[in-house]
Write a structure and sequence with these properties.
Layout: H1 13-23, H2 29-40, E1 45-55, E2 58-67, H3 74-81, E3 111-117, E4 122-128, H4 130-135, E5 143-146, E6 154-160, H5 172-182, E7 201-205, E8 213-215, H6 228-235, E9 244-253, E10 261-269, H7 271-275, H8 294-297, E11 299-304, E12 307-311, E13 329-334, H9 352-375, H10 378-382, H11 391-407, E14 410-413, E15 416-419, H12 424-437, E16 444-449, E17 457-461, E18 472-481, E19 493-501, E20 510-511, E21 520-527, E22 530-536, E23 544-548, H13 549-556
Parallel strand pairs: 1-7, 11-13, 18-19, 19-23
Antiparallel strand pairs: 1-2, 2-6, 3-4, 3-6, 4-5, 7-8, 9-10, 10-13, 11-12, 14-15, 16-17, 17-18, 20-21, 21-22, 22-23
């Protein structure tokens, strides 16, 4: 057991710097690191300028990051800014920075220039060919000197040729979206009662604009909009797309770890409500397509320092019933005990017990939200088809449906009472009842109904032929037919049955098919003194008949539809 030889572990400095600089998978993380440093060191203003300049005969992407914070001392420049693993924020729990890795993303540049002042002393630091040196297995060689004059308090960092001069993504909308979804600028802490908004603003000027845009602190949510009756009156069958409700759970404690606190804010937002504030979604005027879909961005995020880190939609089970119910959620869970990976991209370093406790807490919160939504009629608007999971939900649904019945108009045929439909499923039930009573009033015979696989009804012309010998075609059901995009192909459709028409549908309106068929034009005509409706196209010999069932009841059957007293 004698003659032990001591081993002194060593680090390959060049490889380690190159590894850390490359760990940042998204080049936009540059803005996160710079913004967080500015925020940590008491800046109230942070400027981002993105330009293309000609430098030594070549066009270079130039990014300038400027703040009015505390500035850096020479020691912080040498030991924190340029060194690896040393962060001046490590011992301060109120600061975001903790690993000493963030500024290494700057090394992905041809040239880095730093000007900084604490109001008493000023310094300049330069590093030439930082990324080129590391890729050539050479250590980058930054330099520092005392400035000839005292600059205005704060720090300015200029990066030339950042990320191999890739200029494709630095537009105003894309960078702004990143700042509000991935940095402290988009913190949701202001949504919690009693939290004041910090005095911190960002000024952004990307490649496609000429002036700075001021971006205020705080994540952007849709304005609350929970009046079901008003929503239905304004948006008809699309009312659920505009529904917004906020749920807040401040300073909650984990069951098995009451020493650990977490905060939750969840907005339930319809898709159209999201589009009113999120310019990155959906098709817009002069825009071929959205930058991303609702399903790409929305759900629930884990946060630290109120900065979104990792989306955990896989934790969400049983919320709503539709497959897309999860994307109605726009929510965040913040817990300061989360431990992050080096690039802040994951909470994988966190104690598994804490993660499981947060997952359990989220499940309970979503169950509570689900019951509340059911009570407040969002289920009717969204037509979520789900089995009721709890006695509370079942009783709430039963009471709501009784109330809804009493608000509907009705009509009588003999001793039978029929209620005015409020959605496509109710329209189907009413149509089949009317067809059973008055089959001779329709030129076709419905045979098969299935809303889960496309167009609703398969029908045939009335004839004496055997079923096996018939020609089949589709009948589509629409609660209200409007001039918005038709969500099926017009091919094989002969009849559309609707309750009525949306306000925007006029004689001559064009209706586009989501399947890429040629547009169809809506027409109102007269045959033997009776008003008829149909969709027509120049390149198709088949007119699609449109039957508004409400008008059929009133005009052809001469039956009055009455209000309940």
């Amino acid at each position: 057991m004698e003659n032990w030889e001591k081993i002194e572990p060593k680090v390959n400095d060049v490889a380690e710097f190159l590894e850390i600089a490359g760990d940042f998978g998204d080049p936009m993380e540059l803005f996160r690191e710079a913004l967080h440093n500015a925020f940590d060191w008491h800046a109230t203003e942070f400027y981002i300028s993105i330009d293309v300049e000609e430098i030594k005969g070549s066009e270079k992407l130039v990014i300038e990051l400027k703040d009015n914070g505390d500035g850096m001392t020479k020691d912080r420049i040498v030991n924190n800014f340029w060194n690896l693993g040393n962060s001046a924020s490590k011992t301060d729990k109120n600061k975001i920075g903790e690993k000493g890795h963030g500024t290494k993303i700057y090394l992905r540049s041809d040239r880095i220039v730093v000007h900084t002042s604490d109001g008493h002393n000023a310094y300049e630091s330069v590093c030439e060919s930082a990324f080129g040196s590391l890729n050539s297995s050479k250590m980058h060689a930054p330099q520092v000197r005392e400035a000839d004059e005292i600059y205005e308090k704060g720090t300015t960092i200029r990066l030339e040729g950042y990320n191999q001069n890739d200029m494709g993504q630095y537009t105003q909308d894309i960078v702004k979206d990143y700042l509000y979804w991935r940095t402290k600028l988009g913190s949701f802490e202001c949504e919690l009662e009693g939290n004041e908004k910090p005095d911190f603003k960002v000024f952004l000027k990307a490649l496609d604009v000429n002036e700075y845009e001021k971006l205020d602190f705080g994540h952007i949510f849709a304005a609350e909009n929970t009046d079901i009756n008003k929503l239905f009156a304004e948006h008809e069958e699309n009312a659920a797309d505009y529904f917004v409700k906020k749920y807040m759970y401040p300073n909650k404690k984990l069951d098995s770890r009451p020493d650990i606190a977490y905060d939750v804010v969840i907005y339930v937002e319809g898709d159209e409500a999201k589009k009113q504030y999120n310019m990155m979604l959906g098709k817009r005027k002069n825009q071929k397509k959205g930058h991303y879909k609702v399903s790409d961005r929305y759900g629930i995020y884990l946060c630290k320092d109120f900065v979104p880190i990792q989306r955990v939609n896989e934790w969400i089970t049983g919320f709503g019933t539709g497959s897309n119910s999860v994307v109605m959620l726009h929510g965040f869970i913040n817990c300061q005990k989360l431990r992050l990976t080096a690039n802040r991209g994951s909470v994988a370093n966190t104690n598994l017990q804490i993660v499981n406790e947060l997952k359990k807490a989220l499940k309970e919160i979503l169950e509570e939200i689900d019951i509340d939504l059911y009570k407040n009629n969002i289920n009717t608007l969204k037509k979520w088809q789900q089995e009721v999971r709890t006695l509370d939900t079942e009783q709430s649904a039963f009471d709501k449906r009784k109330e809804l019945i009493l608000t509907k108009k009705y009509f009588n045929i003999g001793k039978r009472t029929f209620l005015e439909p409020r959605n496509e499923a109710e329209l189907y039930g009413l149509f089949m009842s009317i067809y059973t009573l008055y089959p001779d009033n329709f030129s076709f015979e419905p045979l098969d109904y299935d809303e889960s696989i496309g167009i609703d009804l398969v029908a045939r012309n009335k004839s004496d032929n055997k079923i096996a010998d018939c020609e089949y075609w589709y009948v589509e059901l629409k609660y209200l037919l409007g001039s918005r995009e038709f969500n099926h192909s017009f091919r094989n459709i002969r009849v559309i049955v609707c309750w009525g028409f949306s306000n925007n549908l006029k004689d001559g309106s064009m209706i586009a098919s989501a399947a890429g068929d040629k547009d169809r034009q809506f027409h109102i005509g007269t045959v033997e003194g009776k008003k008829v409706y149909y969709l027509d196209s120049d390149d198709s010999p088949i007119r699609i008949q449109v039957i508004p069932l409400k008008e059929f009841i009133l005009e052809e059957l001469k039956i009055e539809i009455r209000e309940q007293k």
